[in-house]
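Sample 3 of the quickstart, ligand glutathione:
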Amino acid sequence: MGKLYIGNKRYSSWSLRGWLLVRLAGLDVEEIVIPFAEGKTAAISAVSPNGLVPYLEHEGAKIWESIAIAEYCAELAPGLWPSGRVARAHARAIAAEMHAGFRALRVAMPMILGREMPGHGRNAESLADIARIEAIFESTRADYGAEGPFLFGPGFGAADAMFAPVVTRFLTYQPPISAATADYCASVRAHPLVAAWYEAAAAEPVEWKLDRYESIA
Ligand SMILES: N[C@@H](CCC(=O)N[C@@H](CS)C(=O)NCC(=O)O)C(=O)O
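Result:
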């Protein structure tokens, strides 16, 4: 039916988004993990039009960029976005903000599953990104997710998938966050697909570990 190309589950935050979206939509695709090289990964450039993962091929469609994968998956599984027009618009806005922004957080606190580095990566810019993310979580859950535990209520959707790698960073680097954010993070971490991703990350060959990540802190 197709192929989903992803990078190391331990490190590849964008791959986590794409993989969650594809799994939530129930697409029957072969999963191909391409371990990262220390520099640019030639094997990824050889298959993916933008030289990046995630990259999805499905029934003739070729999709790169995780936000485009979200929209493609939601065409096949519309429940990935909230059903109400206004809530759906908000979900798309925050997913797009995540896709386009928060670079300071991503640089200061790269995704490394299975490690705890409390305190590392805090600087004015990364803390400002975290404050904005917490404001998004708080206002979204107040306006649309009161039935919790996810951003738009009981169901883990595309917006949650887009923010899942941020949750892993909060768990690894343990920046100061509110109790409500911590609750949301615990719910995301406990979701069966997120738990499965963590387990697979822990089982990756030790030779796939990269100094550029493992030498942090
Ligand atoms: N904007 C892209 C970002 C994808 C991206 O940066 N992927 C990284 C891994 S997380 C990658 O493929 N790097 C290639 C490499 O390390 O060789 C998306 O939304 O999918």
